[in-house]
Amino acid sequence: xxxxxxxxxxxxxxxxxxxxxxxxxxxxxxxxxxxxxxxxxxxxxxxxxxxxxxxxxxxxxxxxxxxxxxxxxxxxxxxxxxxxxxxxxxxxxxxxxxxxxxxxxxxxxxxxxxxxxxxxxxxxxxxxxxxxxxxxxxxxxxxxxxxxxxxxxxxxxxxxxxxxxxxxxxxxxxxxxxxxxxxxxxxxxxxxxxxxxxxxxxxxx
Length: 205
What we know:
This protein is an alpha/beta fold. The chain is 49% helix and 14% strand.
């Protein structure tokens, strides 16, 4: 029986659509490619999620690596990108119903410190019994250790947990499933699929 619902944040609670985010900063193909290659898909992104480097340190490293070719774009993007994300209010409403129905809500998310600080006062987080952010713990999904940390810290039985995550690599929920946590990948940012997942695991709201 499911008693605990574990939410990822990006593309579940928070709309992390990279294409839409980038469109706020540039429409030039060369600059778009730069943001994908040298920011989103560069090693510094994961290091920020791990809490191993700060936002400003990432800016310095990226600019040096690219010989300051896109210095202003890099600085502007990394200082402002997370503010261009919106909360998926329809999924937050589902979370409210789950809370009202007696389920305990948790967060397990790969996220940099600066991004979490920006969103942490949203009403969604007040619904949660426990929150694990990768940058706080220096652990990142799909590492089994971060799932174990959640279970141990909040004294949860894996078999009583349902994990809601959009990871396109599918590694996150595969790790969770291996540990006994139920769940599957959801369609990003779709409340309809979240509801479908809940029904699949007999979670009533």
